[in-house]
Amino acid sequence: MRTILITGISKGLGLKLADSFSIEDSNLVIGCSRTMTTELKNLMNTRNNIEWHQFDLADISKLENHLIKMIDGRQIHCVINNAAILYKSLLVKADVNQFKNMIDINLAAPMVVCKVAIENFLRWKTKGNILFYSSICAHMGFSGLSMIGATKGALESLSKNIAYEYGRKGIRSNVISIGLLDTGMSNTVNEKQYLDIINKSNIAQCADSDSVIELTKYLLSNNSMSVTGQVFHINCGIL
After folding, report:
1. Contact at 8 Å (CB) between 145 and 188?
2. How far apart are CA 109 and CA 102, in angstroms?
3. What is the model's pLDDT at position 172?
4. What are the pLDDT digits (tens) for 181-197?
5. Residue 74's CB: how many other CB atoms inside 10 A?
6. How far is CA 87 from the centre of its chain?
7. CA distances from 42 to 3, 36, 205 (A)
8. I want to staple 189 with a disulfide (CB 3.0 to 4.6 A). Which of 62, 157, 193, 196 is the partner?
9. Vertex 220, ends 219 and 222: CA angle to 5°?
10. Could you count the other beta carbons within 10 Å of the beta carbon of residue 25?
């Protein structure tokens, strides 16, 4: 059985990932989030290969211990760093505590997740896979989104360095950079910005979450054994 660890599993893209991977009985999905949702509860009632753990990724001092208990000595094969929050503000008006919390969840927490995952890969001699989700904000400027863009840009750098440091151990790391996604992400920008992005898109629409999931599956499969240290863009052709 292949064990896939997913952060932020209770809603949005994380929930869709849990649904998609758990369709296959050969996958065990281990996920975490701060809260349980009705949608996740309903999904777990129909699948016996989803395991949910409740803790806050922002609690960095306790996160490593939470993750170790969550894994419980088992072999992990794939890690999807999905959980993230948005704090939208012009930098000069930003609340320092708010953007520090975003840095903890969007950047520090994935670093801890990767630390624990790589230790597990090395212990089990697993050719493990790590995947990050980045954002178009790391590649284009948007009013009020500079801070989330910075956290996502840092994740892209982290992924490339993990790919370099652990590639000889058979560990791969890649990034999918996503534009406005069809799971409610359009509320991250105002109407003018939304229309501007749609108009700049080659196919004039939001990014499709199914496209993200299918690329995720490919990058976590043996069909992509030669692919590592890369950033893939799903944004309907803006970049």
Report:
1. yes
2. 10
3. 98
4. 766 555 566 777 777 77
5. 14
6. 17
7. 21, 10, 30
8. 193
9. 90
10. 10
